[in-house]
């Protein structure tokens, strides 16, 4: 295992003012951990999905003024990138770490997943724990708790995913920063692995009617 565990600096860096100073701290601290996680989870996710998975650490290269509010490593079946495909992520905001599966607005598979999501909604609700969070916008750190969601909430996500250019959905857990810092590297990897195992059937749903 490469991952050495989260530290306070990995979360505090998001309070640093200015793009360059924040990026310097991100590269020196959190990006190291994300790279480690990327290496650790490539074989784990390959086994869970049955497809070779490749890690992609966020570089935030397009930013010219605004510093990032979060950062992540994502895994997909493509060596070239992850945004076009259903993918898995581990990352951090100032307040928490997250472990997720999702499809963002750049993927041509949004409509497929939206259809499958509604068709298999009862199965999904039985499979995912009640505390899992659903995010219709990956830029917003506040998700909807699944146990509090109504049918209309799921239908709204699916409709937006299928019909709007910016439609997307991320699903998973958060680990508050204090807890993430206290977790040993082994314990964090175990927690994330269990979460990805729970989310893996959603990945299969996204590929159930078309193959990209």
Automatic annotation (TrEMBL):
It comes from the Bacteria. It holds the Pfam family DUF1054. Gene3D superfamilies: Protein of unknown function DUF1054. Belongs to the UPF0637 family. This is UPF0637 protein JJB07_05765. The lineage of its organism: Bacteria, Bacillati, Bacillota, Bacilli, Bacillales.
């Amino acid at each position: 295992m490469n991952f050495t565990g989260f530290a306070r600096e990995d979360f505090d860096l998001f309070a640093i003012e200015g793009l360059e100073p924040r990026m310097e701290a991100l590269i020196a601290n959190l990006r190291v951990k994300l790279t480690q996680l990327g290496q650790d989870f490539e074989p784990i996710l390959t086994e869970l999905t049955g497809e070779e998975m490749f890690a992609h650490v966020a570089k935030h290269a397009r930013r010219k003024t605004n510093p990032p509010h979060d950062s992540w490593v994502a895994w997909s079946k493509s060596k070239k990138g992850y945004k076009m495909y259903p993918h898995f992520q581990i990352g951090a905001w100032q307040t928490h770490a997250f472990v997720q599966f999702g499809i963002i607005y750049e993927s041509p598979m949004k409509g497929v997943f939206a259809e499958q999501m509604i068709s298999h909604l009862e199965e999904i609700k039985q499979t995912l724990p009640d505390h899992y969070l659903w995010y219709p916008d990956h830029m917003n750190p506040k998700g909807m708790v699944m146990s509090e969601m109504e049918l209309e909430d799921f239908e709204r996500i699916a409709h937006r995913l299928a019909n709007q250019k910016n439609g997307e959905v991320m699903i998973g857990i958060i680990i508050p920063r204090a807890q993430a810092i206290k977790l040993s590297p082994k314990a964090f990897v175990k927690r994330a692995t269990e979460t990805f195992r729970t989310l893996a059937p959603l990945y299969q749903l996204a590929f159930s009617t078309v193959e990209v």
